[in-house]
Design goal:
The structure is a single chain. The chain folds into 3 domains: 94 residues, no CATH class; 351 residues, Rossmann fold, CATH 3.40.50.2000; 285 residues, Glycogen Phosphorylase B (Rossmann fold, 3-Layer(aba) Sandwich). It is built from 34 helices and 25 strands. The strands form 6 sheets. Strands 1, 4, 7, 8, 11, 12, 13, 14, 18 and 19 form a 10-stranded mixed sheet that branches. Strands 22-21-20-23-24-25 form a 6-stranded parallel sheet, sandwiched between helices. With 827 residues, it is an alpha/beta fold. Helix 2 packs across helix 5, helix 23 crosses helix 30 and helix 29 packs across helix 30. The radius of gyration is 27 Å and the shape is globular. The structure holds N-(acetylcarbamoyl)-beta-D-glucopyranosylamine. N-(acetylcarbamoyl)-beta-D-glucopyranosylamine binds next to helix 7.
Length: 827
């Protein structure tokens, strides 16, 4: 027995790190894993065998990481996130294991092209946008920094929908990412945990004569963990991402089977499995749907149970929990974890309330990702009480205790109590999840300097007054492995030739490139990289969508979720205005640098205005691209289904990055960082992390425009009337009139009427107020672009000065300011 156990902890040995070693292993996987011969293997067979082979190279490291972590008893980060927008796995695994060349050569010797197999992978789109991609960057960084971390989330059977266009309108298709096999996951049905729902609570007296509450639930589901490797960059470490899949429990099934209700039994199974069926395709707006709350509770209940019972040693004293774990709450989606931990400690472990609360408060920290008040999640008390009655009781108790404290500090301040209560009374009684997270969390952070400041001053002012030290900032970051090294091999080689490879794990070192901005030869090489990346994009778009890009043009890119606050409409107005001015003879198209306007954006399926905007972009594109009068000068492209994979080719090709949200609305943005790091210049407002990008790269290398947040505030308070801007600005008027005329809808004035009337009468995000400033900034862009050498210099400086935006740095900030965890290998 003992011997067995000793054997079982011995790390597996990886296959040989050589072409022969790889080929042998690959063929073995093909034959014994896929059950096919090389001659008969389909591309999918080959891809699956390749993925499994690469996985084997990581396996020994993974097992070793788990073992070391157990032995070290170090503090871990449990990142709780309803979304992980991972992107393709193969290349990242090849990079982590330094196998790319070996694999390329090995496959070639078998007549297989690595590129073909790469394309076979369907990316796991288990997230909507920024928040989900951030989670993926963070776990990559933690693995690379050798910090113990488990990512917890949901294994959605269907991720974010696949976007198609029909007559320019978005049509959603199911994302069946699992259909062709899922070689990167390791299911562990034997480690399933049961999660309860519904029912009621009851009071009872325990054996020690203490009066207690307990939950009497009515139904349950089983959570099956699926493990994924999170390899660090060539450092021998592999962390774990554990995603939960919902299954019907046997007890539930059997009862019905026994009563002969076969169809009912299968139906109940479907009901249970619905929980992890599909990702809510909503971005920055909460859904308030029961299934969504089920998802949230499902995955955090599984995760806490897993950590307490499986990750910690069996005899672990939970009083020491804060020394072993910090649960980082990625927005409010996992906040129901707070009452769940309280329930475990108080109801199951029979602790005193105060004792449990003291421990709980130390185990959580909360990151807020928004500024839009309507995006803060609330759950109707009626719904929460129906699904999780005991949790509701616990939330009430937390609230009562908290408000009693506040009342002591501010005697007689009734209004303040009402403002700070976790329970909102209007428009319906509901639980404000951000308040619960703030009260329970040891720290609360925003995701960029400006955002954190506005979070303190505008979103949670009473709380930041109450606990000034609880609030902090950690500016977002992106992983340089995926978004520079993998996405932009040509630039990576250029950088590495210039300053060595250290930047890949220490991105601040990009600074060493700064002097090269003044080196003519280097600038030429830098331009060659951009040109190469544009060719690569052009080939991809041709293959993928049949889109042809014109040869030599400035590539102006706006990619992000479609949201009114992000103001894709402002971009469209710019294009329409240029078009109108050229067609009307006011502007000579040969006097402006040719531009390609590229869009990528998904709209939430129920978000009408966003879907209209997509149609408008497509329709404007159709007219502009077909008009000989602007040919060569203006081109609009909108490849469907923008995702991580497309971003990896699109961003490195860009010259201009559009970050034009209304000041005070975009929490941070992370696309903005990816563009700067890949040598695009930004045209942007004073919003989110744009502020920090501009500070770092320098005003002269950034095109700033638009109202600043206090001006926005003042204008709205004074009573904003968009029609006035329309009346007073002829250029703007002509652009809007052209849209209103039906010119982009085959003469039909009704199609885009809602957009026009919204702009003229409501314009919540001040598009018209910022229009002229935006056009002026675009003129500055044109002028700057004409000076090729100066532009290249700015682009190089953007790269050299953006090292701060590495997610490695962001993780160090979390460690310093929030987690206080000690990495296994120190800084
Ligand atoms: C996003 C913010 O809108 C974006 O500004 C930020 O960069 C990103 O989070 C990461 O912090 N928020 C979301 O994506 N929110 C949701 C609910 O999807």
């Amino acid at each position: 027995m003992t011997e067995n156990r000793a054997n079982s902890t011995a790390p597996a040995t990886a296959p040989q790190h050589s072409v022969e070693g790889f080929v042998k292993e690959f063929l073995r996987e093909l034959h014994y894993g896929q059950g096919v011969t090389l001659e008969r293997a389909s591309v999918n067979d080959q891809y699956l065998a390749l993925a499994r082979t690469v996985r084997e190279y990581l396996m020994a490291r993974w097992l070793e990481t788990v073992r070391r972590q157990r032995d070290a008893q170090a503090k871990s980060v449990a990142y709780l996130s309803a979304e992980y927008l991972l992107g393709r796995q193969l290349d990242n695994a090849l990079l982590a294991t330094d196998l790319s060349e070996i694999v390329e050569e090995g496959l070639a010797s078998l007549g297989i092209e690595l590129g073909t197999l790469r394309e076979q992978e369907v990316e796991p789109g288990l997230g909507n946008g920024g928040l989900g991609r951030l989670a993926a960057c963070f776990i990559d960084s933690l693995a690379t920094m050798s910090v113990p971390c488990i990512g917890y989330g949901i294994r959605y059977e269907y991720g974010i929908f696949r976007q198609t266009f029909v007559d320019g309108f978005q049509v959603e298709k199911a994302d069946s990412w699992l259909t062709l096999g899922a070689p990167w996951e390791f299911p562990h049905p034997e480690a399933a945990v049961t999660v309860h729902f519904g029912g009621s609570t009851e009071r009872y007296t325990d054996d020690d004569g203490v009066e207690r509450s307990r939950w009497v639930p009515t139904w349950d589901v089983r959570g099956v963990p699926y493990n994924y490797m999170v390899p660090g960059y060539q450092n021998g470490r592999v962390n774990t991402l554990r995603l939960w899949s919902a299954q019907a429990t046997e007890a539930f099934d059997l009862a019905i089977f026994n009563s002969g209700e076969y169809v009912e039994a299968v139906r109940s199974q479907t009901f249970a499995e619905n929980i992890s069926k599909v990702l809510y395709p909503e971005d920055s707006t909460p859904q308030g749907k029961e299934l969504r709350l089920q998802q949230q509770y499902f995955f955090v209940a599984c995760s806490i149970r897993d950590f307490v019972e499986n990750v910690l040693p069996a005899d672990f004293d939970l009083h020491n929990l804060p020394e072993r774990i910090i649960f980082q709450l990625n927005d409010t989606h996992p906040v129901i974890a707070v009452p769940e931990l309280m329930r475990i400690l108080v109801d199951e472990k029979k602790w005193d309330w105060d004792e449990a609360w003291a421990v709980t408060q130390k185990c959580f920290a909360y990151t807020c990702h928004t500024l839009l008040p309507e995006a803060l999640e609330v759950w109707p008390v009626a719904l929460l009480g129906k699904l999780l009655p005991r949790h509701l009781e616990i939330i009430y108790r937390i609230n009562d205790d908290f408000l009693a404290e506040v009342a002591q500090r501010y005697p007689g301040d009734e209004l303040r109590l009402r403002r700070m209560s976790i329970i909102a009374e209007h428009p319906e009684r509901s639980v404000r999840m951000a308040f619960l997270a703030t009260i329970a969390g040891s720290k609360v952070n925003g995701v960029a300097e400006l955002h954190s400041q506005l979070l303190r001053d505008k979103v949670l002012p009473d709380f930041s007054e109450y606990w000034p030290d609880k609030f902090t900032n950690v500016t977002n970051g992106v992983t340089p492995r995926r978004f520079v090294r993998l996405a932009n091999p040509a630039l990576s080689d250029l950088i590495t030739d210039a300053i060595g490879p250290g930047w890949i794990t220490d991105l601040g070192r990009l600074r060493e490139m700064e002097p090269l901005a003044d080196d003519q030869e280097f600038r030429e090489k830098f331009r060659a990289v951009k040109a190469h990346n544009k060719h690569r994009l052009s080939a991809l778009l041709q293959r993928r969508d049949g889109i042809t890009l014109p040869g030599d043009a400035m590539l102006d890119v706006m990619v992000k979720r479609l949201h009114e606050y992000k103001r894709q409409t402002l971009k469209v107005l710019h294009i329409v205005s240029l078009y109108e001015r050229i067609v009307s003879g006011e502007l000579d198209p040969t006097t402006i640098p040719p531009r390609v306007f590229a869009f990528g954006a998904k709209a939430a399926p129920g978000y009408k205005m966003a879907k209209q905007t997509i149609a408008l972009i497509n329709h404007v594109g159709r007219v502009v691209n077909a008009d000989p009068r602007v040919k060569g000068a203006l081109t609009v492209v909108f490849p469907p289904n923008y995702n991580v994979t497309l971003a990896e080719t699109l961003i490195p090709a860009a010259d201009l990055s559009e970050q034009i949200s209304l000041a005070g609305k975009e929490a941070s943005g992370t696309g903005n960082m990816k563009f700067a790091l890949n040598g695009a210049l930004t045209i942007g407002t004073d919003d989110g992390a744009n502020v920090e990008i501009r500070e770092l790269v320098g005003d002269e290398n950034f095109f700033l425009f638009g109202l600043v947040e206090p001006e926005v505030d003042a204008l709205v308070t004074a009573g904003y009337r968009p029609a006035e801007f329309y009346e007073e600005n002829a250029t703007l008027r002509r652009a809007i009139d052209l849209i209103a005329s039906g010119a982009f809808a085959g003469g039909d004035r009704t199609v885009f009427e809602p957009i026009v009337s919204n702009l003229l009468h409501e314009d919540r995000f001040l598009v018209l107020a910022d229009f002229q400033a935006y056009l002026d900034a675009q003129d500055r862009v044109d002028e700057a672009y004409r000076d090729t050498e100066a532009w290249t210099r700015s682009a190089i400086l953007n790269v050299a000065r953006s090292g701060f935006f590495s997610s490695d740095r962001a993780m160090w900030d979390y460690i310093d300011r929030i987690w206080h965890s000690r990495p296994v290998v120190s800084r």
